[in-house]
Amino acid sequence: MQAGILLIDAQSLRIVEGNRQAGFILDTSLEELIGRECIGSLCSGYQRKQACPVLVDGLSHLSNECSVQIPNGRMIPVLKTVVPVVLDGRQYLLESFLDITERKKAEESVQLALAAAEDSRAKMDGILQSVADPLIVTDPVFRIVMMNRAAEELLGVCLFDSLGLPLGSVIADQRLLEELQTIMTRERSDGWVDFTLPVPDGSGEWVYQGRTSSLCAQDGRITGLITIMRNVTFEREVDRMKSEFVSTAAHELQTPLASILGFAELLLSQKGEISPEMEQEGLTYIFEKAD
Fold first, then answer.
1. Which pairing describes strands 205-216 and 62-69: parallel, antiparallel, or unpaired?
2. E strands of 70-165, at which residues?
3. Contacts of 240 (CB under 8 A, 6+ apart)
4. Are 103 and 97 in contact (CB under 8 A)?
5. Cβ contacts of residue 184 below 8 Å, gap of 6+?
6. Rounded distance, CA 53 to CA 6, Å?
7. Helix or strand (DSSP H, E) at 283
8. Are 76 and 101 in contact (CB under 8 A)?
């Protein structure tokens, strides 16, 4: 058996029998174990039988995890079960125990992995939440995996309520839904697509740029999509004003430039043939238009 088994006299609390596995687990021989008190071998936390729950409280069995110190001073974790038995009219304790060192290591590894995963998720969530633009992460069939606070405000939904749901069942605005689906189903994902949304107070429209990138596993499979939407209303307004300014400036420059060119050509072509007064008038006109 993988478990160590010891038979302990309930009166003297001394070990009277056991199997070889018990000695192997406790890093000693069975012969050295027989005759020892169980206190100090497997029940170092108790003080004689007054503290033994099986004897004091009359329990039918006791199972717990504890640590046992072996001769080299190392503590090993064991899963221990104690059952009272009567043999030939005399009361004994039948104690079995299993070395769970490897299980404890596995549990610690799992806990470390879970902690690392939680830490990574917390970092990723922190990064997403720090992005000012609305950002949505979906799986390949457009079910919501994650979104930041800006996306929640834009879509009018809560991530907690919409996690795992398809976009179509979460976004009430049909126009926005169609725009997002268009962005997500584009063959090229390296460019921005413009779309407009009405301002909630009805004062006009917002202009957004949407872009979707694929999330790929190590084997190249597409495992999800990340879509980011930028509000470019202000930028578009600045572009419009810039275009209007350039157009107006070009128009305003045409008239004086035409006069400057005309008079300059006249003075050059008629040099020596026009009066000083006429020449002075032309130069003055060129100066004024240039100014």
1. unpaired
2. 75-87, 90-99, 135-138, 144-147
3. none
4. no
5. 138, 142, 212, 225, 227
6. 17
7. helix 276-290
8. yes
How many CB atoms are located within 10 Å of the residue 178 CB?
12
Q: What is the pLDDT along the chain (291 residues), one digit of tens a residue?
A: 789 999 999 888 889 999 999 889 888 888 988 888 887 667 655 555 555 777 777 778 888 888 888 888 788 889 989 999 999 999 999 999 999 989 889 989 999 988 888 888 788 778 877 888 888 888 888 888 888 888 888 888 888 888 888 888 887 777 777 777 777 776 545 567 787 877 877 788 888 888 888 888 888 888 888 888 888 888 888 998 999 999 988 888 888 888 888 888 888 888 778 888 888 888 898 888 888
Tokens of 259: 């006069």
Please give the Cα distance from 285 to 282 (Å, whole number).
5
Q: What is the pTM of this model?
A: 0.49
> If we measure between CA atoms, which residue out of 100, 96, 99, 98 comes closest to residue 5?
96
204, two tokens? 């006009």
